[in-house]
Amino acid sequence: MEKTNSDITIGSLFRNKVIRTLLLSTFFLQIGIWVRNYSILLFVVEKTNEDPVAVSLISVAEFAPIFLFSFIGGTFADRWRPKRTMIWCDFLSAISIFVVLLALVFGGWKVIFFATLVSSILSQFSQPSGMKLFKLHVKEELIQMGMSIYQTIFALFMILGPVLGTFVYQHFGIDVAIAIMGVAFLLSAGILFLLPKDYEIEEKAESTTVMQEMKAGFKYVWNSRALTLLGGSFAAAGLALGLTQPLAVFLVTEQLGLPKEQLQWLMAAFGIGMILGGGLTVGLAKNIAPQILLAIGMSVSALGFIVMGFSDLFWLTLTAEFISGLFMPCIHIGINTMILKNTDSAFIGRVNGILNPIFMGTMVITMTASGWLKKTFSLVAMYETTALLFIVGVLILVPLFKGAAVLKKSTEV
After folding, report:
1. What is the Cα–Cα distance from 88 to 130, expressed in whole angstroms?
2. Is there a single domain that holds both residue 249 and residue 302?
3. Taking the chain, what is the end-to-end CA distance rounded to the nearest angstrom?
4. What pLDDT does 207 receive?
5. pTM score of the predicted model
6. 3-state secondary structure of 205
7. Which domain does 65 fall in, by range?
């Protein structure tokens, strides 16, 4: 009987037009984004003779909009119609790409940073609109499975993306790379026309200002126990990841005593684990509450960092990276599903815009301090502290476990 229900659920998932359309759009967006990231990186490195300041500006253009526009974009995503918002964002990204291409033709290469900045800003409006469409058009029991497949696409491009971006630039140059980006964004915009028509926005008796809606968003999160606890868990995970993310190369050179080039194998093991984990989670997601899924992912990540911190054996560190990658989709899927299941559709954008900067902000704090901390403390201490922070993140979620058990019991009845 369970097998029949499982078959029906999986069949319903792939029959859902919104999920199919969003996944296909995401596929083309990922092509554009990864070709953009690596082609622009290699182009700037070549143009500036490896100037670290110029290279760092690429990351600034990519991540700064998350702080500056995430909540603003989320607020407007709640005010605007999601389908129309996503189409316009992809279309404007493509236009900005072709403007950059035109500038390159006339020799203004520094405008290349504009391509990353504009598409990164627009994604802060588009991404919450996509989550809103999930909430509006996807049955609640299918949301977690849909997010599993969504994350698998991201994991796949973590492996293929750098290869694709590097190949395009090395074989065809920056002009063709820019053109591919523009076409990819246009294809994504065209595919989004297949989405169902936006619901008519109900006229409000009293029109609200943007500032009033921003305040309402903060109040909504503060009054939701699940979202508040998720924000605390977010902060712990951000602090944890930022602490060791810049130190991976030292794990190879100091802890393992190997050439820095061996880092690529650790990254590959993590990426392969993510791809497999995303596929496995599709089958498990329907039976596990999202907060439990998130806690499992964070617990295994903590265990992985403990092993990586103490290990001086390459195969053991490689195994820890693979297992951490295998359970990383549990974290992403658990977070997105918790947001969708605990948020009214009218607040999806603002909730996303509040929680995302919490994660990014805490990560940047420890990322900035990690170099100084490494000089003061040992590499082992850094990795074990990261594991401890992940455990703190799990403990913050504990109050939600009882509700998950009650919910599962009631659904079984």
Report:
1. 13
2. yes
3. 15
4. 67
5. 0.74
6. coil
7. 8-192
